[in-house]
Amino acid sequence: MRRTASERLAARRKFGMLVGTIGVALLLASCTGQPEPATQQGEGMHRLYLVMWIIALVLFVGVEIAIWGFPLAFRRRRGDNELPAQSHGNNVLEFVWTAIPAVIVITLFALSWQQINKVQAKEPVPDREIKVIGKQWAWSFDYGNGVTVVGENATKNSAGFANEPVPPRLVVPVGQNIEFKLQSDDVIHSFYIPATLYKLDVVPGQQNAFQVTFTKTSEDQPAHGVYSAGAFQGACAELCGTQHAQMLFEVEVVSPEQFDTWLRGKQAEANRSAGGAATATTTTAASQ
Amino acid sequence: MATTEVRPEVAVGGVEVRQPYRATVLDWLTTTDHKKIAIMYFVTSVVFLCVGGTFAGLVRTQLMQSGERFMDGDTYNQVMTMHALVMVFLFLMPMIAAIGNYVVPLQLGATDMAFPKVNALSFWLVPLGGILMLSGFLVKGGAASVGWYINPPLSNSQFAPGNGVNVALAGLAILGASTTLGSINFIVTILKLRAPGMTMMRMPLFCWNMFVTSLLAVFSLPVLTAGFAMLWIDRNLGANFFNPQAGGDPILYQHIFWFFGHPEVYILLLPIMGVVSELIPVFSRKPAFGYKAFVFATLAIGALGTMVWAHHMFTTGAINVSFFAATSLLIAVPTGVKMFSWTATMWRGKVKWTTAMLFAIGFLSQFLIGGITGVFLGSGSIDFSVHDTYYVVGHFHYVLVAAALFGVMGASYYWFPKMTGRLLNEKVGKVQWVIMFVGTNMTFMAQQILGIKGMPRRIETYYVPAWNTLNLVSTIGAYLIGLGLLMWIINMLVARKRGPIAGDDPWDANTLEWATTSPPPYYNFDALPPIRSERPLFDLKHPAEGAEDAAESAEREHAGAH
Q1: Distance CA B459, CA B415 (A)
Q2: Looking at CB atoms within 10 Å, which of A54, A169, B165, B392 has the fewest?
Q3: Strand pairing partners for A193?
Q4: Contact yes or no for B171/B126 (Cβ under 8 A)
Q5: Which residues of B touch A206 (CB under 8 A)?
Q6: A260 touching chain B per CB within 8 A
Q7: Using CA atoms, how far apart are residues B419 and A252, in angstroms rounded to an integer?
Q8: Beta bridge partners of residue A190, listed in sequence order
């Protein structure tokens, strides 16, 4: 059964639309994929992301239509051996399609520049400073005055495979400007909390720090694998050796009152252990 | 009838030449013929593609599900690192050398490269460097497991004490020397060996792209080799260039690496853009739309490509993000010009949907995705969230696999008949295209989405079950790509002996390589047509169409010469 030319064309159109729909659906999925921002800085980034995403979608759809549509519309028919018109170019058109992307990228740069400045901005005196120490392969968090949360070192089983990690829990108050000071004494790590839409490398020999203000608590976060409920995920984002993948942590964002209660508890614990045994180092168990 | 029965390999001059087996082997081992060297580059590159592809399969198998227990962390890191090094330095770089070596002298109407013996040396350094690099799997402590940037301090003698990193550095230095020599060869060939009448602005676009690529390689590779040498000295002689505990600076290494590393992307991509710029005009039966704009866009990409390296370091906290965001975003402009030129070339053409053309269109379609996602990364601010996640992995695989590998496929379907005298099977090619198109988009779109969700890259496993589905999609896609590549290799092996005879000019093409026999004799051309535009063969076949241009440019040439 041979199909007529118009049926074939219709089938091709249908196929084209199917491919297009799948492409757009995949792109849409990637749009909604960004974690909901949990910080002031992250909200601006998320808005910029959406703006860029819409521009990108329009360009993507337009250019894909040209990429697939032109060769389909102008395909060579069987037996047609005539040459098409030999056009070598068009200066006006070429100028226009140089100018349009130029305007778009300059606009994007202006928007992006504001966000870069915002996320890199620092208050002279933050509400709270937390020192983040990355090492092969665990995170620990130092709140000052001997209050620390120390992650358990990643371990392997007898076959050489990694055991499931126990992410240490970084507790921070909502609504306060927090400065994370990053420190590493071995290799480069990267301190990454997806919900902040930000990360910064932890570079040995370099004082890296950034400030964020969380805008919501983490109480509604569901559990995800080794991450327990009620906390945002955190991970090392820079390859740092064999157990890089196990170098996880989680971030519990609580109200300032809850935070103060928690900190007082940790302080008492720290004082007890400091007073109890002078020889003991500052290592405390991970707060779970 | 008689001509089609002659085996192409003996058709040259109508004289059948039969050599004993040993003489053939000796001939290949000692050849300085650019075409034979190109074929050896090609075969080497495909062999390493199989090696690197196997590594990719292992990586994707490991990541198919959360908590997968297929390889331990150290093995995974070795395989992941060697996958990257093999694919970049042993598959794509030699593949570009292969296409360039075969096509550039022929398109220029030259008899060979400028320095044929250096050319042979460039080639033989590749298997040497490759074997040295892969020998890491045999040394104590295993192959390099520190990622392909080989960033210190992770790669210094304290944290990577084994010999794997040492042999990788030595192999990479040899491969760097190979590419530097090869690039100088291309530059001199293009500047000095063009046929009479072929001005720079009548040079085929592929040669232009090879020219800019070679300039970039000469500009950036020695810097990388110096960086590797410093790291090697750090590791073995305790120089502390990059050791923060002794006042060295690990960020300095990253500057050196990416000063090469970003131009490297264009070193790999420009020749592929050149390939596509040959295929689209030929199969649309129109000249490239805006030849001059295209040349300037290529030069602009080359120039800008050297000024953007630190966008790989936005999250180090040690660079000016805004400056490098600005230069990075600017690259979108010449890249956009190229994209518009390609699509406009197809507009009002008479497009032949050959397999080669299908791969060229696939290149455009997927390079667009790689390009757009690159704008997000280059913007600086969005990069803070997706840097070092699977978004980046998805992005650069869109550029280097979904786009560059598709360009390589297009090039092979287009030039294989010239190299062997026989056509590849078009039907198998189209099925292969569908499988690979579906495969690449499954693999790398899934990775981009995972990255936006926050899955870090270079992890041997993950503990978030919510990422399982997308990772499974990505893994299935990767297997599909492997299947497509297998079909491609089988297609070539079969067609080499049994494919239909191609003839001199199976695609009704425009450039000089199609003005000689397939395969060409060792001296390439008996005679060259007059060269009055970037399409000398087209002008020869369609004197009426090209007349106006030819008269015009002949006049200009006349005026310029006197």
Answers
A1: 40
A2: A54
A3: A198
A4: no
A5: 244, 251, 317-318
A6: no
A7: 63
A8: A201
Joined together, the tokens standing for residue A271 give 């004082």
Q: Which of B117, B96, B120 is nearest to B42 (CA)?
A: B96
- Highest CATH level, class, for B2-528: mainly alpha
A:B CB pairs within 8 Å: 288
pLDDT at position B544 is 78
For residue A251, what are its two tokens?
């971030």
Task: Count CB atoms within 10 A of the CB of residue B227.
Answer: 23
**Chain A residues close to B251, C-beta within 8 Å:** 203, 206
Pairing of strands A208-213, A189-193: unpaired
Say which range, B12-26, B54-68, B88-102, B258-272, has the weakest mean pLDDT: B12-26
Residue B71 CB contacts under 8 Å (≥ 6 apart), including other chains: B58, B62, B79, B460
Reduced to 3 DSSP states, what percent helix, strand and coil does chain B have, rounded to the nearest 5? 75, 0, 25
pLDDT digits (tens, 9 = 90+) for B381-405: 999 999 999 999 999 999 999 999 9
CATH architecture of A128-276: Sandwich (2.60)
Q: Would you call the peptide bond into A137 cis, given omega within 30 degrees of 0 as the criterion? A: yes
C-alpha–C-alpha distance, residues B348 and B281, integer Å: 12
Contact B489, B451 (CB under 8 A): no
Q: Does B350 touch chain A (CB under 8 A)?
A: yes
Residue A254, amino acid: V
- A32 contacts chain B (CB < 8 A): no
Residue B169 to residues B159, B173, B255, B314, B539, Cα–Cα distance (Å): 16, 6, 17, 26, 50
| Pairing label, strands A177-184, A128-135 | parallel
Helical H runs in A33-153? 40-73, 91-120
Per-residue confidence at B562, pLDDT binned at 50, 70, 90?
very low
**Cβ-Cβ contacts under 8 Å, A66 against chain B:** 343, 347
pLDDT exceeds 60 at position B171 = yes
ipTM for the assembly: 0.90
Q: How many angstroms separate the CA atoms of A191 and A234, rounded?
A: 8
A108 contacts in chain B (CB < 8 Å): 329, 375, 379
Q: Is A232 within 8 Å of A253 (Cβ atoms)? A: yes
Q: Which amino acid is at B209?
A: N
**Which ranges of B387-467 would DSSP assign to H, the alpha helix?**
390-397, 404-420, 426-453
Domain limits, chain B? 2-528, 533-562
Instruction: Work out the mean pLDDT of chain A and round it to a whole number.
Output: 88
Whole-number Å distance between alpha carbons of B163 and A1: 66
At position B391, the amino acid (one-letter code) is Y
Closest CA relative to residue B506, chosen from B434, B404, B427, B420: B420
Dist CA B556 CA B395 (whole Å): 45
Contact B321 A98 (CB under 8 A): no
Residue-wise pLDDT for B458-501, tens only, equals 999 999 999 999 999 999 999 999 999 999 999 999 999 999 99
Q: What percent of chain B has pLDDT over 70?
A: 94
The answer to whether the CB of B528 falls within 8 A of the CB of B444 is no
Rg of chain A in Å (alpha carbons): 27
Q: Residues 463 to 492 of B: which have CB under 8 A from any A CB?
A: 463-466
Let me know: does A210 contact A198? Beta carbons within 8 Å. Answer: yes
Rg, chain B, Cα only: 24
**Phi, psi (deg, nearest 5) at residue B521:** -65, 165
Work out the angle between the directed axes of helices B34-62 and B21-30 (0-180°, nearest 10).
80
